[in-house]
Amino acid sequence: MRCHKVDYEIIGSSMPMLEVELDPGETVIAEAGSMNYIEQDVEFETKMGDGADPDQGMFGKLFSAGKRMITGESLFMTHFSNSGSEKRRAAFAAPYPGTIVPVDMSQTGERLYCQKDAFLCAALGTRLSVAFSKKLGAGFFGGEGFVLQKLEGDGMAFIQAGGSVVEKKLNNETLRIDTGCLVGFSEGISYDIEMVKGLKSMLLGGEGLWLATVSGTGTVWVQSLPFSRLADRIVSAAPALGGADKGED
After folding, report:
1. DSSP single-letter state for residue 12
2. Which of 3.30.70.2210, 3.60.160.10, 3.10.450.50, 3.30.720.210 is the CATH number of 7-232?
3. Predicted confidence band of residue 79 (pLDDT cuts 50, 70, 90)
């Protein structure tokens, strides 16, 4: 199944919103709870699976949806379709401040790997599944990067990231990244985990014990502020933000 061809506009910067324009009969799939608004004639339906294989039986849908549960995502996805005769729009947003990255998968080898919570929405026809790292090191120590989402198709996909995003083009090169800062990478990139070198760096560096290593030829997306890092800072600051109990007599 070929992906639907959708137009889009990203509104805002630090807390952006994605507006997808749907021609009559076009559909996008999205994570549950990501919708902001839909114009008239846009209908939505919660379905099991991504709808990329309409002839897939119930067992196949359950198997595909079950694999998504490994990444912590819902069994179900929401399908937004334009049932009218004119172009209509549907809008989506990430659940935290950051960046929405549009990816034309026809330019990435029709395959994209991303962190388990990075997928926002995509054109109907995009297949979503999971991919495990082939390296034992990544499996045991990769943290966020052990289980990846795999997107396959030839249409537009949209991923969400924390803070700002840098797009790095590798040409038979290697890049080392904090494990939480890796958002995704295209076909042609291999992924592994390596230990930080040097006892002093391990104990005093404050950068963690492990780095993600991406190598090959393709595109890598890196985020400046992983949500896990933001959440840790908020939790650590909670006592100071709460202050002393100032009850009145």
Report:
1. -
2. 3.60.160.10
3. very high
